[in-house]
Design a protein that fits this description.
single chain; mainly alpha; Four Helix Bundle (Hemerythrin (Met), subunit A); three-stranded mixed sheet; 5 helices; 9% strand; Damage-inducible protein DinB
């Protein structure tokens, strides 16, 4: 019996989630990027950009051993995209880069620890595979869920995520 590796399992899950995230991002209306459902909520454009930028953050888990939020020289995401085309282009670029980093990795490397810090304060210390799953994929899934609520509030059809959507013809 052949058992899939950690790397293969993460790649398979990532491929599924990336396809769903892209479907949701394709629905983000360019003329509503400043929409904010509550004063404590991110604006629609910020939330969509955050979801995309998390892909680069996930890549850090795979390629690096640590990330310090107080490091002024640490890589930072580019400016918030102002068009749907920019948002989707960045998504495609970051997705391809993350997939390549995972493809170039191994179970052994994914078993090594990654530490997320704020100066001397350790925020997370986990194997890279677990960090990618917990702080990477789960984090993106959480924000994608928020984004679907924004779409619903704006009366924009919500695509199916793990099954049919009430907005897709013939779903129910």
């Amino acid at each position: 019996m052949h058992t899939a590796s950690i790397q293969q399992n993460i790649l398979a899950e990532l491929d599924h989630e990336l396809a769903v995230i892209r479907k949701v991002l394709e629905r983000v209306p360019e003329d509503q990027l400043d929409y904010q459902p509550h004063p404590k909520s991110m604006k629609l454009g910020q939330l969509a950009a955050h979801i995309v930028n998390l892909l680069a953050f996930k890549q850090l888990f795979v390629e690096k051993d640590e990330r310090d939020f107080l490091d002024a020289n640490a890589p930072k995401p580019g400016p918030t995209p102002t068009t749907s085309a920019e948002l989707l282009a960045r998504f495609d670029q970051y997705s391809a880069s993350l997939r390549q980093a995972l493809h170039d990795s191994s179970d052994e490397k994914l078993g090594q620890n990654f530490q997320l810090r704020r100066g001397d304060q350790v925020l997370m210390n986990r194997p890279k595979g677990a960090a990618l799953r917990i702080m990477g994929l789960n984090h993106s899934i959480h924000h994608r869920g928020q984004l679907t609520v924004y779409l619903r509030l704006l009366d924009i059809p919500v695509p199916g995520v793990y099954g049919p959507s009430a907005d897709e013809p013939g779903s129910f």
